[in-house]
Amino acid sequence: MDEADRKGVSQVNAEEEEASSSGYRLVPWQSWEEWNMIREKLLSSSPESVRVALNR
């Protein structure tokens, strides 16, 4: 891991700590329903479903 990667990891860790201390968790999804839809598509045996999920 190079210096830029370490700085990126440090930034993510700091953001996670801040989110945890406020009682909130940062996620890239708008809702649990959206997350479940993406999760199901990512785990699908259909290449088209996986592509749709990755393009989300």
UniProtKB/TrEMBL annotation:
Ranges for the region named Disordered are 1-23
Q: This protein is called what?
A: Uncharacterized protein
- Can you name the source organism? Nymphaea colorata
